[in-house]
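re: ur question from yesterday

yeah so i grabbed the chain u mentioned. its 327 aa long if i counted rite. heres the sequnce exactly as i have it in my notes:
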Amino acid sequence: MHRSPRADLPVAAGVGPGGRAVVHASAVVLNPARTADRAGVRQAVAAVLEEAGWPPAVWMETTRADPGGGQARAAVAAGAGVVFVSGGDGTVGRVAAALAGTPAALAVLPSGTGNLLARNLGLPRGTVAAARLATRGARRRIDLGEVDGRVFTVAAGIGFDAQVLAITSPRAKRWLGWPAYVLAAMGHLREPRFTVAVTLDGAETLARQVRSVLVVNVGRLPGGLHLVPRARPDDGRLDVALIDPRGTRDWLRLVAALARRRPRAPSVTLLRAGRVEVVAERPQPRQADGEPLPPSDRLTVTVRPRALTICVDPATVGPDASATAPR
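ran it thru and got these C-alpha cells back, copy pasting raw so excuse formatting
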C-alpha cells in the first residue's frame, strides 16, 4: 500500500501587520519527468528563499504511485504556508487539488509542455521570478473545476481534444513542445462528429453534433490560442466550448480566428454554467488538465468557486479580481 510522504518543515518567524507573528515554511513538489533542469530549479528556489529570509524548503518528488497530491497534503499537514510545484499541467492540478480549501498558497514554477495555468495567469516563465511571487507577490483566490472527483485548474474535455492528448507521444512533447499536439491532430481532422446532449445547471439542455466539448476554467490554449477570451478563473462559473468543425477547411478557419483573438470563432458555440453535464451518443476519450480519464459517454463537471489560493504578480490582477499581499 502506498503511503503519503511525511514533511518536517523548517520554519522562520517574522513580524507581520499589527505586530502579528508570521511563520514562513514552504515545500517544493517536483515532477522529475517534467522538470528539465532539477539542479537549476533547486538553486533558484534556495536563493530566493534565502534572499527573503525564509528557511530552506522541503523537497519532495512525485512518483507514478503518487503524482503530487500526497506530497502536497503532507506539506500542508506539516504547516507549509506555500507549496511550490514544478511540473506539467497535470502535476499542477494534482497539487492544486490537495491545497484546495486550505490556507496554503500554490506557487507555480513553470515546467512541462503547456504551462497553461501559468500562462493564463500571467506568471513569469523564469524560475527565479516565479519563485519570488511567493515571497514578494500577491495572493489570489481562483476557481477550480471537478470531474469524476478529479480537480482541474485549466480544462476538462470529451472527444477530439482528449483523443489528441492521448495519441501525442511523450517523446514528441519533450522535443517539440506544444507543436507535437498539432502534428498528432493532423491525421484526425476529418473524423466524424458525434451527438451530445449538454445540460447547464440542471435546466437548459442542448443537442448538438460536435468534435469536442471543452469545459474551461481559463481560456488560453497551447500555442497562445484564446478559445474563450472572456473566461476568468475567479468568477464562479465555467465556460463551455462546443467545437464542431466539419472538415479540414473548418479547422483551419477556426485556428486562424483563435490566433487573431476574434471574439467569435467559427464552428464554436460558447456557453457558461456552474455545473455542466455532457451525454454523448457513444463512449469518447476524456481528459482533465491534459491527463486521460477513462473513456465514457458522460462528462459531468462542477465548479469549486475560489477554492485555491495562488501566488501571482500584483500587476496582472485586474480591478475586478481580489488579491492580497503575502502574510
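noticed a couple things. The chain has two domains: 12-136, 150-305. also The radius of gyration is 20 Å.
anyway ttyl
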